[in-house]
Amino acid sequence: MSPESSHKPVRSGAGNDQIISYYSLRILIGATGILLPLLVVAGKWIAEGSPVLEFSISDYYDNGTAGDILVGVLFVLGFFLLSYKGPDKIDNRAADIGCVAALGVALFPTTHCFGCWVYYLHFACALTLFSVFIFFSLVLFRKTDPRKPMTNEKKERNTIYLVCGIVMAVCIVLIAVSLIFLDPALNKKFSLVFWFESLALVSFGFSWITKSETLFLRDRESPPPTW
Known about the structure:
By secondary structure, the chain is mainly alpha-helical. It has one domain (21-212). Helices cover 65% and strands 0% of the residues. It contains seven helices and no strands. It has helices at residues 22-48, 65-83, 89-107, 117-140, 152-181, 184-190, 192-212. Helix 1 packs antiparallel against helix 2 (65-83) and helix 3 packs antiparallel against helix 4. The longest helix has 30 residues, at 152-181.
């Protein structure tokens, strides 16, 4: 089942019994991703008075307030993904996998011990989480009803999803390249992994907010969303 029409959330009065609407969930999921890098940096600054960036977002785990924010945001993101119910089963399965991966990133920190199973499990969960984000942007969000002409707004949204998905994929590749081929001291000095992760999260968040079709690029013939 892949029609674009099937991807329109059920509106109030049409059998929608969700506590949080599809529109709100998509915005909340997107905002969570965009705000995470800012929140951990602000948390460290407030707790330690230092604006110096960590090597990666995961390295904020042991930074007191910033670590609490990191774990808390990941759990909130996991809850939002678990609550998300898309138009097809594959949407729900992908969101469920994302939920488990987000919780895994929070529960298995890289700071536990270098080279142990917890360390590698963290990276596996992080890679899975970003893979889910990319899958949503490149595949699920770009589904279109072949029986209807594509609107100009839908074309523009699809372009945004494509760009966001590509940016996320490139960021993951650059993270791997920087970890494998670059001098660790150079990597740490410029916090390259942190910046690549942040860019990937912003791209993820922007794609989900775009998918909400509430703030911009809503099809002109569509009624305003019910929150």
